[in-house]
Amino acid sequence: MSPPLFWVDEVPRVGGEVVVAGNEGRHAVTVTRLGVGEQLLVGDGRGSVADCAVEAIRSKDTLVARAHGYTFIDRPRPTVTVIQALPKGERSELAVDLATEAGADRIVPWQSARCVARWTGKADKGIAKWKAAASAAAKQSRRPWIPDIGELATTTDVRAICAEVAADDGVVAVLHEDGAVPLRSLPLAGASQIALVVGPEGGLDDAEIADLTALGATSVVLGPQVLRTSAAAAVALGAIGVLTDRWER
Length: 249
Fold this sequence. Notes:
Blueprint lengths: L4 E3 L9 E4 L1 H10 L7 E5 L4 E12 L2 E11 L6 E7 L5 H12 L3 E5 L12 H18 L7 E2 L5 H13 L3 E5 L5 E2 L10 E6 L7 H9 L3 E4 L7 H15 L6
Helix pairs in contact: 2-3, 2-6
């Protein structure tokens, strides 16, 4: 099993010392119960990761470690943006958690026409929850990159994102149970970037699908099952990981 990962502001190079403190230190000392000599990873969520060994436990929320290895890992290519219509309730953070573990590089919350959930007047709170969920999921899955969480998008904003991806020789896939094209038929491996559009519990309305396909998006189906909005992006990301070089190690 790989060592646990903890976030720090500055990742040390080989031989350097690092202090893991605060919430991360508390998790390392009191939850994971790391002791002197045990191994851990520290990262900054921006690609830098160091292999470390614990040198001292200072308190219940602080440990000192020394690096014996350092790596910078580029984002996998093609990059993937998930445009996620707001799920309701706890499924909101679950969607972010699963997409992060499956490799999303950016997740954009979208107030689509049929969303039951509404972030009107509380977008900052919702975005903060999504950022916390992304950070926790990236740490759990040992990802060197924490996905970027975008601002709350309107349908106009989503059109602009999709048009930009398509203009850059990217692929825009609208995940829809009535899609006529399987995801595997899209030119994913040769794309500069990929955008996945995921609708809410009530589905995308016809006007939204028509607008996006007019901009170059393809309405795709993932398989015979009807997936929850919180799971759809993760399933698509798994397929993309296999159909491209994103999961090559």
